[in-house]
Amino acid sequence: xxxxxxxxxxxxxxxxxxxxxxxxxxxxxxxxxxxxxxxxxxxxxxxxxxxxxxxxxxxxxxxxxxxxxxxxxxxxxxxxxxxxxxxxxxxxxxxxxxxxxxxxxxxxxxx
Length: 111
What we know:
It is a single chain. The protein is mainly alpha-helical. Helices cover 42% and strands 4% of the residues. The protein contains 5 helices and 2 strands; from the N terminus they run αβαααβα. A two-stranded antiparallel sheet has the order 1-2. Helix 1 packs across helix 2.
């Protein structure tokens, strides 16, 4: 089992009981998990792969995966911003799949 597969199994075990499921598109999930591991090597922490991290853990604490926006995103849209974590209903096509807007405040975005 490679590093991405281990991360998948570990996160799945802890997140599913909380009602957060991986997107059923496993190829997309593995790409995102690989990007999380790249960010961990780069910054020392797993920042959201769909957002630009600053490299300062304190400034990026809101985008450490799972980010603080995941809960409200999944509750409102059935998916987090990057579609890594989704609701069961989203995975089963019981709710519409819509674009999840960025919730991170502009002042936290390092560009």
